[in-house]
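Page 42, continued from yesterday. The earlier attempt failed because a stray header line got pasted into the input along with the sequence. Redoing it now with the clean sequence only.
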Amino acid sequence: MKKLIEISAMPPNYLTKKECKEQLTVFHKQLFKLQNRFYADGRFGMLIILQGMDTSGKDGTIRHVMSCINPMGLQVKSFKKPTEEEQQHDFLWRVYPHIPAKSMIQVFNRSYFEDILVPSVNNTINEERINHRYKLINQIEEHLLKNDIHVIKFFLHISKEEQAERIRERLTEPHKRWKYDVEDKNAAKKWNDYEKIYDQIISDCTHVPWNIIPADKRWYRNYKVAKTLVEYLEKLNLKYPQPK
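This time it went through. Structure tokens are written below.
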């Protein structure tokens, strides 16, 4: 498997911004219909995981890709730094309540992978416990699939240069300034450390394969995530139930 440094964060040359935006509109209509059928079918749940470096566009992906989905069938959970209460429990305690029920699509903005990523970079827990978390996450994803909860994992892949530009945007553009946190720059300084751990996560947590999305251009990121979701949902052979 290629390392992230070997994978371009830019769109392929054969696609234009205009084409991707036009196709995204088509995907929105398809996603609306597919999610309606998914909800009515009732056989499955779906967990969508969004991971990526700071500023990679997790919020933007949810806004631009999921906005067409009926809110009755969609839930979003953003996992931030664990609270004091959450730290008193095992690392999955805060995740369990948000595993989707049948008919529901749940989006994780960050996820249990943060509990490998951050402790590994900051060296706060030992290697044995980190390895246990790798093993446990693979087992959990296998368990979810066997219980008809489909898991789709996206890594939004941006370049170091693009991250620096987006941090500057947060400092200078009023509608983005509220997002700025001093930790953005601190995390940027640890880019190589985060990239190394993400390489390992993508390599070792593979019971559910990763979709690595080139995300330097927001329009391509949105297009590619929407396309992946449409294609996945179409393969489920969703059906409306017969009236009683």
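Notes: The radius of gyration is 18 Å.
Reminder to self: strip header lines before submitting.
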